[in-house]
Design a protein that fits this description.
single chain; mainly alpha; 3-stranded antiparallel beta sheet; disordered N terminus
């Protein structure tokens, strides 16, 4: 897990996880990595963006502790870090009505709540 994530208090870590998962590109990357570990270049292949842009997305996921990147020779591999996902899942299960959790629905719910708050 990323060292910055280890030092973060649990609430701050959850903030980082949900902020990372708020982006559809990062959610798609996470879905891809659920299948298997992947080289950075393989992660980037299906996206119409630069390798540098994908690397930034991977950096956000790694900083949140959602993935781990490991250098093997000249290739950087990415893999899911299940403990962070488990923490987020446990937190969300506390809201029973969200079980099973659909992150897209949850994101729409939060966006609606933020709109209501800013209008008040």
């Amino acid at each position: 897990m990323d060292r910055n994530c280890v030092r973060a208090d649990p609430e701050q870590q959850l903030d980082m996880i949900f902020a990372a998962l708020a982006d559809p590109t990062r959610r798609r990357i996470m879905s891809m990595l659920l299948e298997d570990d992947m080289a950075v270049s393989d992660v980037a292949a299906p996206f119409e963006m630069s390798l540098a842009a994908i690397s930034k997305h991977l950096g956000v996921l790694a900083a949140a502790g959602l993935i781990r990147q490991e250098r093997r020779g000249r290739i950087t591999w990415c893999q899911i870090e299940p403990d962070s996902l488990r923490r987020a899942s446990i937190w969300m299960q506390g809201f029973g009505q969200f079980d099973p959790v659909d992150l897209d629905d949850f994101e729409r719910f939060l966006a609606g709540e933020l709109d209501v708050t800013t209008k008040e």
